[in-house]
Write a structure and sequence with these properties.
The chain is mainly beta and 107 residues long. It is built from one helix and seven strands, in the order ββαβββββ.
Length: 107
């Protein structure tokens, strides 16, 4: 049985969905991109991660929005928007926030 923290899912064109191989770390993303290159910007990765400490880095998604869902505990998501403004969003279980890509407003 697929387990989201171990086996992310890919949502592709024509409403397709596939179970991905075991997540093995940062290098995994390069192989994922190669497997689903044909989906282009329409492909979506669905994954789940657990964090027990503050994240000391940042990331961005220039080609699409990202939904961050809190499934357990609580977290504060710090966002920097395309216009340079910042926002901190407190999330509890079941809450989510959208990280917009450059030029795409969060809704």
């Amino acid at each position: 049985m697929p387990h989201l923290p171990t086996n992310p899912a890919h949502l592709g064109r024509a409403a397709s969905a596939t179970v991905e191989p075991d997540f093995t770390g940062p290098d995994w993303f390069e192989a994922y991109a190669a497997r689903h290159e044909a989906d282009g910007q329409e492909g979506r990765l669905v994954s789940q991660f657990a964090f027990s400490e503050r994240w000391d880095s940042w990331e961005m998604h220039p080609h699409g929005a990202e939904r961050v869902i809190c499934t357990q505990g609580a977290c504060t998501l710090h966002q920097e928007h395309a216009d340079g403004s910042t926002e901190s969003v407190a999330l509890a279980p079941g809450d989510y926030a959208i990280n917009a890509s450059s030029g795409v407003p969060a809704t």
